[in-house]
Every structure is written in structure tokens, then in C-alpha cells.
């Protein structure tokens, strides 16, 4: 082999080498090189598997431990955080990090580990071929296969990097408790040998720890908030028997604001926030690109439905809607069967359905709410609702309290009893809406998208555009500033960052819903029978209560 000018001279022969060997044989050198290369590859493989097997939390959450600076995320502009600073408790890892580390055991039917990657967003759509033909190339980087129960992880990660976070509790006006209580209780809900004590254990330990903190002792929890990654009913068990844990009804939680994907509308400390969808844009420009895409898309179906019949439910309404879809014909309606984990494993199928539909049917899920409504709206389809508590009474910081807000219609409400008895059909109602009116409704839905999604950027969407976390944090900070006496009267959060800027106040709350969605009996009395149905429009319930000015002005800015 030619010798490089920079190569050192050949070393002298070692003692004991053959006398006739002028130079050493190249075979041992090649062998040594091969061994070194093989060792290097083995080492890389070991490191790779170690990374995959390492605690999942280390891949997307900063390692537990306190920081030495008051401003962990850089200098803070005084005007950016005039609403106040947030302190994020550094809890013992058993309450968050350890739960993520044990992701294989959190769910009895499948591993949660893929859904806990990327800070709780799940696997990136760019790595999943099923998404390639559904999302535009320009938007593919904003999409993930996100599980609906990961809100605790998503909000914790975002607050750790929030510009208004402080590590000095004396400077904070709000205190976030990053307990992944949804992940914890979810691991005990279906176990054969699981007991109420198992489901309650972590919550009791958390409250014992919290009550020893000076900030909690000083306020009694009024300036604290937490995220519930499951519906509130999973945390409201009374007594020793029954479903879920008793965490929310424990005395230590009475004053803590709870951000939940489904709230108890009679409990003022519960606040309904959007379910996580698969859309997690990095910046306002990503949102606008997606908004243009969904508005320009030609939709081949009048309406669509993602779900499955629940044979175990008495009077299952989903079965009624599947029949409505079948009766309308394949040229007007398409349904995606979500039995088992089909829609969980393949979020692209649901997204494709709603992108091709002008309207999407949204009955109640296992509880009153369902993630599908937010999937529908992010895809630019108009939701068709049958229960007020699915949206209007639930997400008052995010959605108008009726089909028509102060900026126009955004949804359709159909009396479910009239539909069930056959006095009206979904097809008749939706075909009775003019094309111009449908377009205005779609534009209104698309305008609301930023506030319904959780940005992937640590700094949010930017450019004055608020995402779901911005709205929630603004509302929490405002209710803390107003002190507890006004929380029970709260309707919309005048404290969202946008509302703080424009200085507006909220409107009065609409009348409480009894869950009956209008008087089906009165409608029945007015109908002469199934063969003499009145105009379909008479079954569209118009709710005239309007959304707050804060929602209107925020959307104008975005």
C-alpha cells in the first residue's frame, strides 16, 4: 500500500519476527481493522437500543431537577407576561416521569409508548405512510398520530418551556401541578385485581406532598391548577365502590382549577379544554397554510360519521346515525368503523373522512364529549350535534354557547328525539341548508382552528395567534387575579391573552341545560305522524346566546 506523506515510518520488526520479513504482513492489519470496525458497529447498536430502552420521559421532558435561574427559558419581555408568571412544581418523579417510564403497562390492550413520544404528540405523520396521501406535503410536519388521553404530558412539556415560567415561587401568581393523574388511574381501571385503593393511592400521596408546600399552604390551592387527561368522571368516585378514583372530590382539590377534556359543568373549578387532535403546528404560518388547504378542498360527501355501534348501550344513538348514513346513500355519506382500536391506530382514516365531508355527525361518546368533534373542526367540516353538553355547555372558553355565535353559525343542532322517531332525517336537514350558508359556516369553523389545537413550538404559534394552551393559561391567570369569589359566575375567560389586550368583559351565562336539548314532547305533539313530517328546518334548534367579545376579537386577530 502506498505510504501517505503524513504517515509515520514503519516501525522496526518486533523481536521474534521472521528474519526474512522486510515488512509486516498486511493480513493482521486488515484483521485488526475489521475487528475495530465490527466493535464500533456493535457499540453503535448497543447505544441505539439503550436509547430506545431508556426512560421515555428523558426523550421529551427535561430531566427532573431544579434550575438555578429565575428565568429558565431566557429573558422575559415585561409586556409579554403582564398577566403574571407561572411556577411549575418539580414533583417527585413517581407522579409523572416514572409513569411515562412504565408506558408498556399503562393500558391493557396496547402499548402507550408510541403515543408518549414527541412530548405526548405521538409518532410523527412523516414516519407513517398512511398519512402521506391525506395531508399536504407542506403540512405533513405538523401532523402526528396523537392519542386523546395525552393532555397532561402535552401541557407539562409546554409549560416547562413557556416564556412566562419562573423557578422562583415568590414571583409566581399561578402554580401548575404536573401530576399525570390520567395516566395513573388509566393503568388501574381495567385490571382484574385492581381495587379502589390502587386507583386512589397516587392521588392521596400527591396531596400529602402538596399540602407541605408553602405556596399551597398560603392559598389553600386557589392559585393552583392541574390537567386532567381523562374525562372528569374518571376522577369523581364517591364512596369505596364505583368507577375511577376519588381524586377530584378529595378536600385538598376543592380550590384547584382543573383543565379537563370533559368537565363537570356544575363544578366551577372544572374547565373544559379541547381534546388533543393530531394537528400540532409549529407556527402561525403552518396554521394559515392548513386553513387555506381545507377551505379550498372539494368535498365529495354531504356528511360523514366516524364511530361504531354500542350494542351494550340501551337505545344506542350511534346505530341510529349509521342507519341515517346508509339511508342517505354512499354518494352523500360515508362512515368509518372505529370498533376496537381501528381509529386509534390509524388517525389518518378519520382525517381523510372529515376532509371529504361538508358536515360530520357528532353524537355523544362514552360520555357527553368526544375527540371526534375537534378532529372534524380541524379538518374544516361543520359539526352536527345532538346534545348540548357535547360542546355548547362544555367548552365555554373556546366555543360559542350555541350553534350561532357573535360571528355567525359554526354548527348544526338537530333534536335527537325527532330523529330517533323518524320525524326528520339528517339528509333532509343538511340538504335544506343553502350552499352559501354552508360556506359561511365552514369559514367560521376554519377561523376557530388555532384555538382548538396545541402547538408543537415551545413558544406557541406566534404572530399574535393563540393556541388552546394560550387560551387556557390566560383564563387561569385571569380567574386567579379575580380571586375565588367570582369563579362561580364566570362564563368566558376575559383573561385569555388576547382578551387582556383588548380589555373586554365576558357575557352572561346562558340558561343551564337539563340535557334534554329542547322539548321533544312539544315537537311530537306538533307532528301528525311519521308520514306527515314538518319542514326539516323546524328541527334545527337555534340558540341565540352569543359568544363573548373576547372570542370574537381574538379570532379577528388570528
Low-confidence stretches: 1-24, 46-60, 62-68, 493-558
Coarse morphology: globular
- The structure class reads alpha/beta
Helix content: 25-40%
Rg, Cα atoms, Å:
28 Å
State the distance separating the first and last CA atoms.
Answer: 68 Å
InterPro entries: Exostosin, Exostosin_GT47
Organism: Panicum miliaceum
Keywords: Glycosyltransferase, Golgi apparatus, Membrane, Signal-anchor, Transferase, Transmembrane, Transmembrane helix
Membrane topology: Single-pass type II membrane protein
Report on the architecture of this protein.
By secondary structure, this protein is of the alpha/beta class. Among the domains are: 86-276 and 471-482, no CATH class; 297-452, Rossmann fold. It is built from 19 helices and 15 strands. Helix 9 (317-328) links the parallel strand 9 and strand 10. Helix 11 crosses helix 12 (372-378). The radius of gyration is 28 Å and the shape is globular. The chain starts with 25 loop residues before the first helix and ends with a helix. It is found in: Golgi apparatus membrane. Pfam families: Exostosin_GT47. Residues 1-22, 487-541 are annotated as: Disordered. The chain crosses the membrane at residues 29-52.
Using brief descriptors, characterize the structure shown.
558 residues; alpha/beta; Rossmann fold; 6-stranded parallel β-sheet; 5-stranded parallel β-sheet; 19 helices; 15 strands; globular; disordered N terminus
Structural topology:
Elements lengths: L25 H28 L32 E3 L8 H5 L11 H4 L6 E2 L19 E2 L5 H10 L4 E2 L7 E4 L3 H6 L9 H15 L3 H6 L4 E5 L28 E4 L9 E3 L11 H13 L4 E7 L9 H12 L4 E5 L4 H4 L1 H9 L1 E6 L9 H7 L3 E4 L18 E2 L2 E2 L2 E2 L2 H6 L4 H6 L3 H13 L20 H15 L14 H6 L17 H7 L22 H9 L1
Helix pairs in contact: 11-12
Amino acid at each position: 500500500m502506498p505510504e501517505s506523506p503524513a504517515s509515520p515510518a514503519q516501525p522496526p520488526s518486533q523481536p521474534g519476527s521472521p528474519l526474512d520479513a522486510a515488512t509486516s504482513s498486511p493480513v493482521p492489519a486488515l484483521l485488526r481493522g475489521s475487528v475495530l470496525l465490527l466493535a464500533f458497529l456493535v457499540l453503535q447498536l448497543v447505544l441505539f437500543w439503550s436509547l430506545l430502552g431508556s426512560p421515555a420521559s428523558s426523550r421529551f421532558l427535561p430531566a427532573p431537577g431544579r434550575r438555578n435561574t429565575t428565568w429558565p427559558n431566557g429573558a422575559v419581555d415585561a409586556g409579554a407576561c403582564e398577566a403574571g408568571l407561572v411556577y411549575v412544581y418539580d414533583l417527585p418523579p413517581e407522579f409523572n416521569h416514572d409513569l411515562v417510564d412504565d408506558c408498556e403497562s399503562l393500558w391493557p390492550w396496547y402499548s402507550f409508548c408510541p403515543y408518549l413520544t414527541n412530548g405526548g404528540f405521538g409518532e410523527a405523520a412523516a414516519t407513517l405512510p398512511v398519512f402521506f396521501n391525506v395531508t399536504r406535503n407542506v403540512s405533513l410536519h405538523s401532523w402526528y398520530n396523537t392519542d386523546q388521553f395525552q393532555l397532561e404530558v402535552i401541557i407539562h412539556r409546554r409549560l416547562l418551556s413557556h416564556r412566562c415560567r419562573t423557578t422562583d415561587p415568590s414571583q409566581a401568581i399561578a402554580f401548575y401541578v404536573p401530576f399525570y393523574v390520567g395516566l395513573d388511574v388509566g393503568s388501574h381501571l381495567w385490571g382484574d385485581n385492581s381495587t379502589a385503593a390502587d386507583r386512589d393511592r397516587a392521588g392521596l400521596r400527591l396531596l400529602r406532598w402538596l399540602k407541605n408546600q408553602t405556596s399551597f399552604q398560603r392559598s389553600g390551592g386557589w392559585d393552583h391548577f392541574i390537567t386532567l387527561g381523562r374525562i372528569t368522571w374518571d376522577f369523581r368516585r364517591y364512596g369505596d365502590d364505583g368507577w375511577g378514583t376519588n381524586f377530584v372530590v378529595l378536600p385538598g382539590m376543592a380550590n384547584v382549577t382543573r383543565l379537563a377534556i370533559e368537565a363537570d359543568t356544575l363544578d366551577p373549578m372544572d374547565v373544559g379544554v379541547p381534546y388533543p387532535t393530531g394537528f400540532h403546528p409549529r407556527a402561525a404560518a403552518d396554521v394559515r397554510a392548513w386553513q387555506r388547504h381545507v377551505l379550498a378542498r372539494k368535498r365529495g360527501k354531504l356528511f360523514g360519521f366516524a364511530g361504531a355501534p354500542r350494542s351494550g348501550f340501551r337505545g344506542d344513538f350511534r346505530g341510529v346515525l349509521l342507519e341515517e348514513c346508509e339511508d342517505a346513500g354512499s354518494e352523500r355519506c360515508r362512515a368509518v368503523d372505529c370498533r376496537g382500536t381501528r381509529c386509534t391506530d390509524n388517525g389518518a382514516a378519520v382525517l381523510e373522512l372529515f376532509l371529504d365531508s361538508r358536515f360530520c355527525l357528532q353524537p355523544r361518546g362514552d360520555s357527553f364529549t368526544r375527540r371526534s368533534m375537534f378532529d372534524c373542526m380541524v379538518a374544516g367540516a361543520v359539526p352536527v350535534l345532538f346534545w348540548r353538553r357535547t360542546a355548547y355547555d362544555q367548552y365555554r372558553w373556546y366555543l360559542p354557547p350555541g350553534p350561532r355565535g357573535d360571528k355567525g353559525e359554526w354548527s348544526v343542532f338537530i333534536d335527537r328525539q325527532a330523529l330517533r322517531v323518524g320525524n326528520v332525517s339528517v339528509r333532509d336537514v343538511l340538504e335544506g341548508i343553502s350552499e352559501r350558508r354552508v360556506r359561511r359556516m365552514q369559514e367560521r369553523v376554519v377561523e376557530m382552528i388555532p384555538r382548538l389545537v396545541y402547538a408543537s413550538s415551545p413558544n406557541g404559534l406566534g404572530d399574535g395567534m393563540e393556541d388552546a394552551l394560550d387560551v387556557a393559561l390566560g383564563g387561569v391567570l385571569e380567574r386567579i387575579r379575580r380571586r375565588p369569589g367570582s369563579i362561580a359566575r364566570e362564563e368566558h375567560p376575559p383573561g385569555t391573552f388576547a382578551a387582556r389586550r383588548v380589555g373586554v368583559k365576558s357575557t352572561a351565562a346562558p340558561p343551564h341545560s337539563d340535557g334534554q336539548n329542547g322539548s321533544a314532547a312539544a315537537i311530537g305533539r306538533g307532528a301528525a305522524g311519521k308520514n306527515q313530517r314538518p319542514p326539516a328546518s323546524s328541527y334545527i334548534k337555534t340558540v341565540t346566546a352569543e359568544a363573548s367579545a373576547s372570542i370574537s376579537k381574538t379570532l379577528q386577530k388570528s
